[in-house]
Amino acid sequence: MQQLVLNISGKRWIGKLGIALMISIVLLTFLSKTIHNSLMPRVKTAQFVKGSLEESFDEDGTIEYLGKHKVFAAGSWRVKEVAVTANQQVEKGDVLAVFNEEDIQITLKTIEYELLKLENDLQRYKDGFKPIRLPDYERELKLAQRELEEAANNLKLVGELFAAGLESGKNLDAARDNYDDRQYLYQLKEETLQNKKKESVAQQDEFDRTVREKTMELELKKLKCRKQSYSLTEDFKMLCDMDGIVTAVHIEPGIDTQLNQVMFEIIDTFCPARAIWYLSEEKAPSFAVGNAVSISITGEIIGENADGIAHMDNKSINTEVIKTKITGKEYITTLGMWKYWADIDRDENGTKLSIKEGQKTRVRAVYNGQAYDYLLPKSSIAQVCGKYCIYEVKQRPGALGTENYVKETEVEILSENDFYVALSGFFNNVDKVVVNTTKPLSEGKQVRVR
């Protein structure tokens, strides 16, 4: 009986030991796999997609006006007062500036003197012109022709007399020599007349052309004189000759202007404008004339007065995004960059946006380029020994079951933007490629896919 009890107790102890051993094995296996997984790199993956790379830029730009009207100084004038400022609206007849009286008088007298000189020069040229007298050469030719005819008749008569034995051979030779001389003289006079006719035509053309040039120069000077006189009042104030906006003032009280110096720049209230910006040589090839751009600009909206006329006193601040197209570009050698510009319609659909010269804008464009078969996020590219590689996630049997590992594949980048790359080669679109990892990867390294 005692032996039976011992056997039963031993069996129970062995059973408990077996259960404990199995639990330990399961627990150790779980812990081993957990520790193994925690030590492996954790990766995120993406798959290849087809599509095109989106090129874009978001750059600061500035406003530039087109068709500026420039007001020049006609001489060295001392500026007494400047009556306008940049970005000020002006009307025809408004005072722009006031100048020293003596300086203006000297300029106007100088212009009058230059006009007088031009008029006298033109008249002297006309009076000094002496055309070729063709009638004199024509008379000389007729005289030579008459003498030739007389010599021919005389030669004929002497020849007949010589044949009849009534004239000597000496007289016949003399008659023949006289005829030859008269014929040569006639040909010379005829050639001279033809040459003089050609010279006369060329001389007259040169005279007419020179008279036209001198007349045009005189008329241009008169126009400048009238314009200066028109813009200046009796008290030597310079008046604006158009309605518009002053975009730039290049003078200030107390300075002396220089001949042909630009004093003011004025535009029509709604003259064409454009936004300009610059792109690097790397970005520029993706954007061409005709591509769409969005221009964000903050400016004043000009309303209308009671008469329905746009007026600067009735305005509010507003930000608009203007849709337009690139209208031009040029390479700026000194900057090593490309300059782009896009025209702005400043009165589209009744919206009157008042913008200023040099005002800042934000220019943005998006362009979809060539289509590619294999696109991946840019973060999927790794550099190994100076070469571009990707890590494809594969599966294989392992000690703890099926495990994931990475295959290192060298690739060639065809194109890229800020977010994606286009690769050459042949891939399966369902393949998974590592785009993010917690630890460095290498060929065949086991990974854990998140």
What does this protein look like?
By secondary structure, the chain is α+β, with helices and mostly antiparallel strands. It folds into 3 domains: 40-51 and 372-449, Beta Barrel (conserved putative lor/sdh protein from methanococcus maripaludis s2 fold), CATH 2.40.420.20; 60-67 and 272-304 and 315-371, Elongation Factor Tu (Ef-tu), domain 3 (Beta Barrel); 101-233, Helix Hairpins, CATH 1.10.287. It has helices spanning 2-39, 101-128, 134-163, 169-231; strands at residues 42-47, 49-65, 69-72, 79-82, 88-90, 95-99, 237-239, 244-249, 262-267, 273-279, 292-304, 310-325, 328-332, 337-344, 353-354, 360-377, 382-384, 387-398, 401-410, 412-416, 420-424, 432-437, 446-449. Strands 2, 10, 11, 12, 13, 14, 15, 16, 20 and 21 form a 10-stranded antiparallel beta sheet that branches. A 6-stranded mixed beta sheet has the order 17-18-19-23-1-22, with no helix packed on it. The chain has a 4-stranded antiparallel beta sheet with strand order 3-9-8-5, with no helix packed on it. The radius of gyration is 49 Å and the shape is elongated. The two termini are 62 Å apart.
So what's the overall shape? elongated
Q: What is the percentage of strand-forming residues?
A: 35-45%
As residue ranges, the low-confidence spans are none
Mean pLDDT value: 82
Please identify the top-level CATH class of the largest domain: Mainly Alpha
What is the H-and-E element order? HEEEEEEHHHEEEEEEEEEEEEEEEEE
Distance between the termini: 62 Å
The helix fraction, in percent, is 25-40%
